[in-house]
C-alpha cells in the first residue's frame, strides 16, 4: 500500500459554521511524505496537521500558528482519512473550513472530483500496542490494540430524539460513505440561541445542522439515519484522530467523547512510545488492514 494524494486541484466556496463568513477553499496535491498542510492564503501562513498545533477544542478542533488559525477542520479531515489521502494542501482565505451540509459527504464528492493518485512512498500506520485512555468523569475515549480499524462510540442525552445510542463501525472507504459520511452535526435550539448571542453559530441553520427543540427534530426532512447522532460522533472522531498524522490501526472506544478528549488522546498516545508502533504498509494489499479499496471512479 502506497501513499496517496489527489490528482487535480479543486475548489469550492461555502460558509463557516460559527462566523457565518464566506470562505473559498481549495485542495491541491502534495509530494509524498508532506502530510496534510493547511494554508491561510490571506495571511501567508502554513499550519501542519499535528497535535501540537491544536489551540482550541471548545466547539470544534482548531489549529493555530503565527497568529493564524483554521477552525472546524474535523469533518474535512474525516473525509480525507476515509479516502486514504496522506499528502494534501488545503488553502483557505478565511479561518473556518466551509460547513457544507453539516456532514462529510460534500467533501467526499470534492475528493472524488479531484481524483486520487498513488505515490511511490509506502504508507505507514500507527499500530496500537496497549490500551491508552483519557477520562473526564464518566466520559472517556480509549485506544485498544486491534488488527482492524474500528470506532465504537456511545452517547447519552436526555432528549427524547437521542436518548442512548451506540454504533460500532469497522472502517473501510465503502462503509464510511454508506454508514458515516452523511451524518450531520447537531445542536439544541436553546444552545444555538445562546451561541449566537456570543457571536458563534452565525452560519448554522437547518440546511447544515440537525436542530432539536423540546418537541424533537426541527428539520422537515427528518433524520438520514435513525441513529444519525452517534454516527456523526464517529465522523468527528475519525477526523480528530487524523491529528496522529497517519492511519490508525486499532480500536477507538468512547462514551460521550469530545474534541477535547480526542485531542488529549492523540497527545497521550504519541507521548508514550511503548503504546504504539509505526507499521509500514508497503507489502499490504489495499483490501487488507486499512481497506482503501474503493476508488473515486466507482464510489
Structure overview:
Keywords: Hydrolase, Lipid A biosynthesis, Lipid biosynthesis, Lipid metabolism, Metal-binding, Zinc. A hairpin with a 7-residue loop joins strand 14 and strand 15. The chain has helices at 74-82, 105-114, 173-179, 189-197, 228-241, 259-271, and strands at residues 2-6, 10-15, 22-29, 36-40, 45-48, 54-56, 62-65, 68-70, 88-92, 116-122, 124-128, 132-136, 139-144, 150-156, 164-170, 186-188, 210-213, 216-217, 248-249, 251-255, 276-280. Helix 1 packs across helix 2 (105-114) and helix 1 (74-82) packs across helix 5. The chain folds into 2 domains: 2-121, lpxc deacetylase, domain 1 (Ribosomal Protein S5, domain 2, 2-Layer Sandwich), CATH 3.30.230; 125-280, 2-Layer Sandwich (lpxc deacetylase, domain 1). The chain is an alpha+beta fold and 299 residues long.
Amino acid at each position: 500500500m502506497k501513499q496517496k494524494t489527489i490528482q487535480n486541484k479543486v475548489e469550492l466556496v461555502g460558509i463557516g459554521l460559527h462566523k457565518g463568513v464566506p470562505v473559498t477553499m481549495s485542495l491541491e496535491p502534495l509530494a509524498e511524505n508532506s502530510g496534510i498542510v493547511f494554508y491561510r492564503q490571506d495571511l501567508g501562513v502554513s499550519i501542519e496537521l499535528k497535535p501540537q498545533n491544536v489551540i482550541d477544542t471548545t466547539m470544534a478542533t482548531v489549529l493555530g500558528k503565527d497568529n493564524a488559525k483554521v477552525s472546524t477542520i474535523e469533518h474535512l479531515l474525516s473525509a480525507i482519512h476515509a479516502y486514504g489521502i496522506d499528502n494534501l494542501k488545503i488553502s483557505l482565505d478565511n479561518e473556518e473550513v466551509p460547513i457544507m451540509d453539516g456532514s462529510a459527504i460534500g467533501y467526499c464528492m470534492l475528493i472524488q472530483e479531484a481524483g486520487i493518485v498513488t505515490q511511490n512512498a509506502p504508507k505507514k500506520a500507527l499500530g496500537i500496542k496497549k490500551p491508552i485512555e483519557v477520562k473526564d468523569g464518566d466520559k472517556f475515549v480509549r485506544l485498544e490494540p486491534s488488527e482492524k480499524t474500528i470506532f465504537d462510540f456511545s452517547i447519552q442525552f436526555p432528549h427524547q430524539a437521542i436518548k442512548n445510542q451506540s454504533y460500532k463501525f469497522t472502517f473501510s472507504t465503502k462503509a464510511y460513505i454508506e454508514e458515516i459520511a452523511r451524518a450531520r452535526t447537531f445542536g439544541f435550539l436553546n444552545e444555538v440561541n445562546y451561541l449566537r448571542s456570543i457571536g458563534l453559530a452565525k452560519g448554522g441553520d437547518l440546511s447544515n445542522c440537525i436542530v432539536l427543540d423540546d418537541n424533537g427534530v426541527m428539520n422537515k426532512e427528518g433524520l438520514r439515519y435513525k441513529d444519525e447522532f452517534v454516527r456523526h460522533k464517529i465522523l468527528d472522531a475519525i477526523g480528530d484522530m487524523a491529528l496522529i498524522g497517519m492511519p490508525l490501526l486499532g480500536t477507538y472506544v468512547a462514551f460521550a467523547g469530545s474534541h477535547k478528549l480526542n485531542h488529549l488522546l492523540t497527545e497521550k498516545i504519541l507521548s508514550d512510545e511503548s503504546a504504539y508502533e509505526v507499521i509500514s504498509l508497503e507489502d499490504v494489499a489495499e483490501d487488507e488492514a486499512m481497506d482503501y479499496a474503493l476508488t473515486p471512479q466507482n464510489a
